[in-house]
Design goal:
Elements: H1 3-22, E1 48-58, E2 64-77, E3 81-94, E4 97-114, E5 119-130, E6 135-148, E7 156-171, E8 174-176, E9 180-182, E10 185-201, E11 206-217, E12 220-235, E13 240-251, E14 261-272
Antiparallel strand pairs: 1-2, 1-14, 2-3, 3-4, 4-5, 5-6, 6-7, 7-10, 8-9, 10-11, 11-12, 12-13, 13-14
Length: 273
Amino acid sequence: MCIRDRSRTMEKKFYILLVLLVYSTFTLHSQTVINTESNLNKIDSTFHLFVDGMGDYKKGNLDFFMIKTNLTIGSRLKEKNLIRFTFSNNYQKFNGNAFKNTISGQFRYNHFYNIEKHHSIFLFSQLGKSQRSMLDRRFLIGGGVRNRITPSENSGYIDIAYGAFYENEKYPEYTINQTTEIPSKTYNNLRLTLNVFTRLKLNKHWNLVSVMYSQWKSNRFKNYRIFFDSTLNYIISKKATIFLKFNARVQSEPYIPFVSNETDTLIGFRISI
């Protein structure tokens, strides 16, 4: 066997080991942000399907089961129009009891009024729920403008988006320590949003994609939410990527006081079809 063949064999073994590691090692704490930025540059005039999968199963003194999936379908229409639909699900059971079930779906449309500078207007609609955040329903609809503030180069970019959206949230009744009862509530808010998107190409295989969403209640700026998501991607091929993801959420006035801050760190595997 020549040195090149040995190198390829070792590389294949490394990929197999890394994929096995993906499904056996992770740390999980929170609700995730719907983020399709990692796949944005791959979407062209044909329909694309991106699937992320993460999972874990442990049995013994403690039983634990987790499965997390993200699915994105997208396409460019006549170059100036980009559509994306994203579905995300995070389900966890501990000793037979479900303690987290987060489901969300989003439709997003971008119209590029300046293709060369990557300037666009966008519209979106989102629907979801989160068991851990005690959220029965969250519906959003809104839009805004996204502008690229750095030259469009192969090394990466920085984009800023600003806009507004209508928010409808429904929370159930809840009792803390069997003493404090929190009644069911429904909120209807208009929120202003300022978002930052960055992509840094480190080399042929590695890139870092980060997004920051900030959402401010229009008539009370003390009421805000900040979501941060950063993903380090290792590109195996055009159709397969391994990634390390970290995201965090800060909420100034949460419905349930002890879920104001959440973080999430995990390893995953992405397939592009």
